[in-house]
Amino acid sequence: MSYLIINGGKKLHGSITNQSAKNSAVAVLCACLAIRGKTTLADVPEIEEINRIIELVKSIGVKVEKLGKNKLSVDSSGELDLSVIDKNACIKTRSSLMLMGALSARVKNYKIFKSGGCKLGNRTVKPHIFALEKFGVEVESKEEYYEVKNNSLKSAYLVMYESGDTATENAVMAAVQAIGDTTIKMASANYMVQDLCHFLNAAGAHIDGIGTTTLKIKGVKELKAVQNYSIMPDPIVAMTYLSVAIVTKSNLTVANCPLEFLELELCKLEKMGQKYKIKNSRLSPNGHFQIVDIEIFPSRLTALPDKIDGRPFPGLNIDNLPLFVPILARAAGRTLVHDWAYEDRAMYSFELKKLGANVTVLDPHRIIVEGPCDFSPKEMVAPPALRPAVNILLCMLAAPGKSILRNTYEIDRGYENLYEALNQAGAEIKVISE
Description:
Blueprint: E1 2-8, E2 15-17, H1 22-31, E3 38-42, H2 48-59, E4 63-68, E5 71-75, H3 87-92, H4 99-102, E6 109-113, H5 126-133, E7 137-141, E8 145-150, E9 157-159, H6 165-175, E10 180-185, H7 191-202, E11 206-208, E12 214-219, E13 229-230, H8 235-247, E14 252-258, H9 263-271, E15 275-283, E16 290-297, E17 308-309, H10 324-330, E18 333-338, H11 345-348, E19 358-363, E20 366-371, E21 379-381, H12 386-398, E22 401-406, H13 409-412, H14 418-424, E23 429-433
Parallel strand pairs: 2-14, 3-13, 9-10, 17-18, 21-22
Antiparallel strand pairs: 1-22, 1-23, 3-5, 4-5, 6-8, 7-8, 10-12, 11-12, 14-16, 15-16, 18-20, 19-20
Helix pairs in contact: 1-2, 1-7, 5-6, 6-7, 8-10, 8-12
């Protein structure tokens, strides 16, 4: 375990390049288990969440080889043995749930341990189960694990019980392996779902409606191996860098941003008075997403005239919502933040009071942020949730003086070379190993 010493109050400068998307990468890695062959993936982020998925799939017989920086070979052509699955890796990542869809046409009966991930209150798996049962997958919840029984897959007409990202991904992975025509209504159209669908189409699937809430899928007998599929850039990490530039009042360019998944965030920032410039529009390496560089300029901010909340795409991304809290703390006025999607995540924002933010918790889903504030240094333990943990780091970077942040694994789950990238842009962060 390591901790950080942050000498805050430094202005950032130059350019930071955004990483590839964590949530896309874990979905695509899980989808590789539906392919009896060797697939190569490019632009895979080197983060702890990916390490857990790799440990997980290797434990059941998948061969994973690192081919160089951010590149993997995933060979799932051999027999898979779920009886020896890595329990610890299962427990540490909620993404392990996506094995259910990936293996729906491959392994008859198995057990998968209940997963962890961010501690954000009760997070139901019912949308996964309701979706998969439409295709003939039976999932029974036990105390410590799920018992999965796969029957012959059948195509389906499915209305998603909840437009969740991973639940939609599970449904899509089952649907592409179910012979016949499937329609998925109320599907998540979020970035990682789109990336997964493009990957599966590259593997021979037939998915129409990518980027909408209605997916029409024609099942195929067999998926084929894919070569050099490039994972898209991460809009949440991009928003993290935009947020740190804003709260430190810096002139910083964030390169490699997927614009479509940040446009509403930028609109909100613009209404607050934030100045920025969009530059260098181009296509992502996989050819499916518009990528830009975004330059942030120091600006005088005022609170939004209305509350801010997240919603499924094309709304403001639910995972970007917490990253607005440090920004709102810098803005003159009061803002209501409604984090309806998770029972406990808004509560973590109360931790920012220790750093000088004026945050009032109304209930488990709603907070009021009043600014502008000046952040002050502190020694703290990061909460057990990815975005609330990185929020504390952002505020410490804006606080003049020495801060200490412990329990950095929560940040390392989702961010690749975050501290090094920030240091190269002018921050002062020391990583101390205990």
